[in-house]
Amino acid sequence: MPLKTLEYPNPKLRRIAAPVESLDQVKDLIVKMQEYLETPSDCCTGAYITASSFGVPLRVIVRRTLNFESDAIYINPVVRIKPDSEMYSSVELCSNFGCITGIVQRHTLIVMRYLDKDWVQKTRSFDGRTAIRIQHCMDHLMGVLFIDKCDSARQTISNLTREGHWY
Ligand SMILES: [Zn+2]
After folding, report:
1. Pairing outcome for strands 109-115 and 87-92
2. How many Å lie between the centroid of ligand 1 and the Cα of residue 147?
3. How far is the CA of 93 from the centre of ligand 1 (A)?
4. Which domains does the chain show, CATH number per domain?
């Protein structure tokens, strides 16, 4: 069965993801997450996805790449903001929200420590859009959604709900 992203406001999106204890625990999950990213199902399939978006509360982020090269899987990620980072107004989509967008303030420079697909610990810097997408994913792992950080999206969502349809 292919994975399907949960639709907001499913309460499972609010669960805090637990650390992964072994590669075996997430091997099948990672393959399915990669398949999800490979399959263009709708306009909102992004370049990054978290296990949390499917209702699996484990600390896993997968990035879409051309050939799923080694650095596309981030297990048990932790992020810190670089001291010289600036703030950027990011227009964001989320696979759990259909095609709603919202503006969120994000940092432009981060460092992430994680385990890769071979369970090897890595530390890597990210900037620009990649840094922003990773912050969006890190929020998911804590049960935080982009609408929590952006008033304009909340506005949009309540309007759409009132009209009785989700675009
Ligand atoms: Zn999202």
Report:
1. unpaired
2. 10
3. 7
4. 11-160 (3.90.45.10)
